Amino acid sequence: MKIKQNKAGRDFIVGDIHGHLALLQSELEIVGFDKSKDRLFSVGDLIDRGPNSLDCLSLIFEPWFFAVRGNHEQMMFDSLNGDSYQTHELWMINGGAWMDVVGIDFLREVSKQAADIMPVWMELETEAGIVGIVHAEPPSDWADIEKINAQNLIW
Ligand SMILES: [Mn+2]
To answer: Any idea where the domains of the chain sit in the sequence?
Structure first.
């Protein structure tokens, strides 16, 4: 996914949020984040471990929020869209138990929409040049990004 420069406001990039919505909100307050013109880019891993996984995942439906997928989202997508017991177990031991609270049918629907709009990599145009965003390991030369196996970019 390639994103045009934000000429109206500022762009921020945030690391793994892992369900900690309140911590994110207080950081946004500190920088005076303006949802009408600033944008926030996430490197993925919005979910699992913290207290508000669903709310953090739902940020991707906000017009000011963009995220690539992390290995935790990939585990959720694989778990909810597949029928492999091992895939599901892998997510559960890595923090996916909140799925039971939210409900599997509801989360499957949200996760389907999320998967559609969470790419493996993003390229952000800035005043200083192109900024590449991936969850895990970028290629040593960003020009090779389209040749790299998605697994390496996510895990
Ligand atoms: Mn993580």
So the answer is: 2-154
